[in-house]
Amino acid sequence: MLWGWWTAFLTDIGLFGVLLYSVIDGGWKNPDFDMVGLAAISVVLPVLLLLPTVRRFFWRSDSVPSLATTVGTPSA
User: Which of 2, 30, 46, 72 could be 12's S-S partner, Cβ–Cβ 3.0 to 4.6 Å?
Assistant: First the structure.
């Protein structure tokens, strides 16, 4: 689950970076408000992923049993 959190977080940050670059590339004095809106919306997902409750859910280590505890145990 941790790799999924990192994949989503890095993808969202990358998307925000591309959209922010698109806004900046057009010039500060002539902003495209559609792109500004998309960039603002795209920053919401990384912020939500950084909330403590969401991080604790995805970063907990007890969600997947470790290999050391499953090797050598008889299956029922």
Answer: 46
